[in-house]
Amino acid sequence: MSDAPVPVFVEKRTYRRRRMADAARMMPLLGIGLFLVPLLWRGDGEVEGARTVSVMLYIFVAWVFLAGAAAIISRRLSPGDADPPDRKTG
């Protein structure tokens, strides 16, 4: 048995990689939330609901934001930054 102490905290690089993986898993939920926001908008009074042009513009901007965020997250999760192999504790 080894007498080497087991570190309590993980390395900063490993921690950040795991948080990026968590962010990647949350992207679909963020997308659903952003795409459902126009359903809550109210119209001017005469017409029920929001105008189609403003809704489509909002959806396009939300889509561009999600695509950009996914690109940033995927770059930070590149294969070169893989987790180091687990140490055997016993």
Write the layout of secondary structure elements.
Blueprint (H helix, E strand, L loop, with lengths): L11 H25 L15 H25 L14
Helix pairs in contact: 1-2
Short description:
This protein is 56% helix and 0% strand. With 90 residues, it is mainly alpha-helical. The N and C termini lie close together (6 Å).
Describe the structure.
The protein has two helices and no strands. The relative contact order is 0.16. It has one domain. 56% of the residues lie in helices and 0% in strands. It is mostly helical and 90 residues long.
Estimate the helix proportion, in percent.
Answer: 55-70%
Total of DSSP H or I helical runs spanning 4+ residues: 2
Largest sheet: none
Number of domains: 1
Radius of gyration: 22 Å
How far is the first residue's CA from the last residue's CA? Answer: 6 Å
Count every beta strand, where a strand is a DSSP E run of 2 or more residues.
Answer: 0
Mean pLDDT: 82
Structural class: mainly alpha
Instruction: Please state the overall shape, judged from the principal axes of the Cα atoms.
Output: elongated
Into which percentage range does the β-strand content fall?
under 5%
In quaternary terms, these chains amount to: single chain
Unreliable sequence segments? none
The ordered H/E elements are HH
